[in-house]
Amino acid sequence: MIVIKPVWFIALLQTVHQATCQQCQQETVGDLTWPKASGGENVTVQCGGTGEGEAIRLCKSSGIWHSDINYTGCTSQVLEDLYIRTWNASSNVTTLEEISRELEVETNGGGNFYSGQLAQCVQILQVILNAGALNTLSGTVDTTVADSLIKNVLDAADNLLNAELFASMWSNIHQYKDGELFLTFLQDLEGFGENVTSYLIRVNHQPLKLSFMQTTHFKSIYEVLLDTSIDVSHGFPSPFTTNVTIPRSVLPSSPSDPAKNISIATLVFASTVRELFPNQTHNSRILVDDRNISSLFVSCNIYPQPTTPFQDFVEIRTPNKNVLPNSTCSYLQYNDTESVWKKDLKLCEKPVFHIEDNTVTCKCKHLTTFAVIGSYNTRGVLPNGILVSMVFYLVITAATFCLVLYANRNFDSDRASLVLCFLATLFTGHLTLVTGIYAIDNKDACRAVALLLYYFQLSYSFWMLAQSVQLVLKVTYKTVETGTVAQFCALGWITPLFVVASMAGLDLEPYGRGNHCAIPLSNGVIFALIVPITLIGCTNFVCLFYAFYCIYRLKKTDRKCLAQMNIILPNIRACLIIIPLEIIEWAFTSLSIDFEFTVFDVLWALSVVIMGIFVFLFYGIGSSEVVVEYEKHFGPCCWQHKKSSAVHDSPRPGWRDEISQISQFREASSIMRDMDSIATVTGNGAVAGCSGVNNGGLEPDDVLARGKELNEPTGLTSSSLTSSFMLKTKLKVFPLRKNNNDQPAKNHHQDNPR
Q1: Ranges of each domain in the chain
Q2: Does an H or E element contain 221, and which?
Q3: Distances (CA, A) of 454 to 157, 219, 327, 499
Q4: What does the alpha-carbon distance between residue 329 and residue 371 come to, in Å, rounded to a whole number?
Q5: CATH architecture group of domain 385-644
Q6: CATH topology agreement for domains 209-377 and 385-644
Q7: How do residues 215-266 score in pLDDT, each as one tens digit?
Q8: Best label site of 8, 393, 398, 646, fewest CB within 10 Å?
Q9: pTM for the complete prediction?
């Protein structure tokens, strides 16, 4: 027997592992050679050239090298020593000037350079930008060293903004080390302008223009303003071709007072800078590329910084690559945790594109770093799952509308007419949502869609309120008759029109200016929709619960009306279910469109499907008009427990459904059988009945004809229906009313004398 020793067992496992696992073959990338490695292994090699440390690369389990290599560990001892010197220099202008000169040489693109060394250069530069050395200088100091420091710092910054040399290195830093490094660097460079302008004020310096400096990726102007009686205009030559105009109203009103002298700092960044921003795959708060930013970046500042919005607009006109859909004049807000680009819909006007020279103009009432942002970070179309559910909803809503319309083709039922109006509004609103929610290519069309969606959402709520009010009126007056449909049309269609027109007249800018053609949840205008919907929803539930309460009271106080009031119960239940479903569907729709999260997409699709099913159940096959039409052709409905005629809604004022007529006539016959059959008409007898009911408007001839049919099976003959009974029926059970269309009643019976 051969005993397998542990060493042999381990060697056997290694052999099996090597035989079964994929391996990455040796490969040379640049000046680094990657040895053969097993799948799933992180391999490190020594950095070449001027770099020190190790680079890291992943060998995938499939036996293929990962295309990205982590070079952030490749640093330089020279830059490390320079970083230590920068910290020790504190605010010493002379030392910092020397360091900035060396840094400018290190960043000029000569020799091999890794992303780790780039990160070191950025950190050194950030220390200098934030040191505040210029703030310690007084008016008696020689400005030559300070001017040289400014020049070296800005030249080094210009080198780091060279996308041709450093774009891949910036991307490597964002992916493996610091996804926010470029943003913080840009913020520090913007703040450096304040230090420069305050220094110019203290030393009474002439305007400092960087035209003499060899900067190619951005241009800067720093100057002190003494004459504030005119507008300030800064122009930059080609390829920047940018002009910044600052109105005199934002400048100090007393130029003779030195304490009120101000300085202006303007930076214009070339389009290549956008290639250095972190992209979405690096989990950054910003996505910048040619698909969403069309203009240059323009940074404007005034020192001291104003604390309130300006009275007049600062105008910025800069080159624009293309006209992006739904563009806004946005600004950088570095501290925001979600997205650094913010759309300013209140203090900035809509950008104006000049096609003749490919420029764009932004007008804003504040200063910061601006750019024209288009439809960024948006899907542009509805996901397939939502699109399928919306098509299902539209089809089933149209089918429900057709069913109710056919059953109520003579427009006899007021309730069915309200349901038809409600279904038509639902269908049109959701069709507008499907076809226009991402119609951002046309700004005017997008705004129109946003206003229509606002209108339809309010209209849904008002039509539900109309149905609830109609049910309350029926229960209150214990009749299936209510007012005309035209009154409810004014509530469902005209009232929301006034609300939308009023809100749009107050503030039209937020409509259709986001990534989609709807009111964004982040905008305050959304409360103009949420508040009315909440109030209408609460009113609906109050009305419906009151209707339930009235029917409950009828069981104790007026059971004679309970039968015909029971036809209202299904309508109340329908409203109680459809109202919250409609609100839930709107909520998930807004969340899905605004945040574009998968969970909200799924909830939206489910709510749409459920809403469509319940609309079909309650307003389609559950409608009394549809049920009666079905039974007329095919017999009793399998989904109804009772004969549909027992729950049929009265189609028009002055008409009772058949069951109500039969019930009333049996009641009248019962009363007469209990009374003395030979009694004459005295006018003093009271007939029990449904209080508040106008008896359906049945005329005397209808009563007599129905009475003969109903009484004979019970053993009564035609002679039993005496003139006394007929007269009592006319005066007590069925009060006469004027009807111009009826013919004079004919006397088909003769009184039998005793």
Answers
A1: 6-59, 74-178, 209-377, 385-644, 658-733
A2: strand 218-225
A3: 48, 45, 21, 10
A4: 6
A5: Up-down Bundle (1.20)
A6: no
A7: 788 888 888 877 777 888 888 888 888 999 988 888 765 555 665 677 888 8
A8: 8
A9: 0.57
Q: Which CATH architecture has domain 74-178?
A: Alpha Horseshoe (1.25)
Strands (E), 25-87: 27-29, 32-34, 37-38, 41-46, 54-59
Direct distance between the N- and C-terminal alpha carbons of the chain, in angstroms, rounded to an integer: 131
Residue with tokens 């008016």: 139
Low-confidence ranges of the chain (pLDDT < 70): 1-21, 109-112, 136-142, 205-214, 252-260, 280-291, 325-326, 337-338, 375-379, 441, 478-483, 509-510, 512-515, 522-524, 563-564, 637-754
DSSP-based three-state secondary structure for 510: coil
Number of Cα atoms under 13 Å in the Cβ half of residue 310: 22
Strands 23-24 and 359-364: unpaired
Please count the residues of the chain.
Answer: 754
Question: Are residues 174 and 284 in contact, defined by beta-carbon separation less than 8 angstroms?
Answer: yes
Provide CATH code, domain 209-377: 2.60.220.50
DSSP lists the bridge partners of residue 370 as 298, 331
The helix/strand/coil state of 314 is strand
User: What is the Cα gyration radius of the chain?
Assistant: 41
Cβ neighbours of residue 51 under 8 Å, at least 6 residues apart?
A: 71, 74, 75, 76, 112, 114, 116, 117
Going by the DSSP 8-state scheme, the letter that residue 518 receives in this structure is S
Q: What is the pLDDT of residue 706?
A: 47
- Distance from the Cα of residue 491 to its chain's centroid: 27
- Tell me which H or E stretch contains 660: helix 658-674
The H or E element spanning position 261 is none
Q: Which helix (H) or strand (E) holds 548?
A: helix 527-557
**Whole-number Å distance between alpha carbons of 340 and 285:** 6
Q: What Cα–Cα distance (Å) separates residue 696 from each residue in 611, 660, 661?
A: 36, 9, 8
pLDDT tens-digit series, residues 148-177: 888 899 889 998 988 888 888 998 898 888
